[in-house]
Every structure is written in C-alpha cells, then in structure tokens.
Write a structure and sequence with these properties.
Elements: H1 10-22, H2 26-38, H3 45-57, H4 61-72, H5 91-101, H6 105-116, H7 125-138, H8 141-155, H9 160-176
Length: 177
C-alpha cells in the first residue's frame, strides 16, 4: 500500500486489525493496534472488546488482560463512574469465565476486584468453582473465601471438594509467607 501511496482511514485500520484477527494473525493485529496508539489514531471501543474476546479465546490471556486494563483504567474517563462506558458489559463475565477456566490468577483477580467485589458482576456457579480452584492453586485464601461464600449463599450445602480447595488455598498461602 505504501508503494502505491494508498493510506488507510482510521476505520480502514480497524478493519485491517479485524482481518488479521480473523486469519489468526494475532501478532500482526496487535502490531497494527499498537501503532494506532503511537500515532494517536482513535480506537473505537468495539475494537477493544473484539480484541479481548478473540485473544482470550486464543489463550492470549495476559495480552487480553493488558488491553482490558488499558480500557478500564483510561485516565480520560470519569473516576467517579466505576463502570467505564467503553468496556462492553458482556466482556467482564466472559473474561472472568475464560480466566477462571484457564486458572489464570492475574485475570481472575483483576476482574474479581473490579467487578465482583463491588457487586457489578455475579458469576455463575461454574465460574465460581473455577475461581475457587484458581485461588487454591495461587494460595490466595481471601479470594477463595470470597468465592466459597458466594457459592454457599446460593447452594447452602457445598460439596467436600469446595472445602478441600479452600484448605489448599490456606496451605499454599501459608507456605508463601
């Protein structure tokens, strides 16, 4: 395109990123995406959401997390309004579910603190079970207790495996101290 003096509009760059994602060329998509930031070309909120969905699905959770954090903690938004307009409400539960299923502690903890603790998100029972297991593997008894409490509030009596995960979180957490 440069040889023919063809330049893309901002929307054209968005479609270029989408085409790279469609073809599973994640590095190229991210390269174009980051170049938009460096050249101060505005990025539409829907493109951030698509990047988070596609990268999460592809197992690139840490990259998806950094994109989510950049949107959720955008310094240009109103800090008194805790739910950023630019992050689609469906992104949060999807990302939490994906991170919990992959036992990705950083992603789970981020969404837990940003959405679950302040009652903006109520995870499903399956997601809560995965969060509990993620907390156990990471040795985070506070997260495990919070997830177990939510499960107990819904179900009443919990299976033994839930308590075993809780104990494991305390044991691993104590070993790290």
């Amino acid at each position: 395109m440069k040889a023919r003096w063809i330049s893309l509009s901002p929307l054209g760059y968005h479609h270029l990123i989408i085409s790279h994602l469609r073809d599973r060329e994640y590095e190229l998509a991210l390269s174009v995406f980051y170049s938009l930031h460096h050249r101060h070309i505005p990025v539409e909120p829907w493109l951030y959401d698509i990047l988070i969905y596609v990268l999460s699905e592809a197992g690139e959770i840490s990259t998806a997390l950094s994109i989510l954090q950049s949107r959720a903690e955008d310094p240009d938004r109103n800090p008194l309004y805790p739910d950023p307009l630019d992050v689609s409400p469906g992104v949060w539960p999807y990302f939490l579910d994906t991170c919990a299923a992959a036992y990705d502690y950083a992603g789970v903890l981020y969404v837990w603190r940003k959405r679950v603790e302040i009652d903006y998100l109520r995870p499903s029972d399956g997601t809560l079970a995965n969060v509990l297991n993620t907390a156990a593997l990471a040795g985070d008894p506070a997260l495990a207790t919070s997830a177990l409490k939510m499960l107990a509030d819904r179900k009443g009596e919990l299976p033994t495996s839930s308590y075993e995960a809780m104990l494991e979180a305390y044991e691993i957490g104590r070993a790290h101290v």
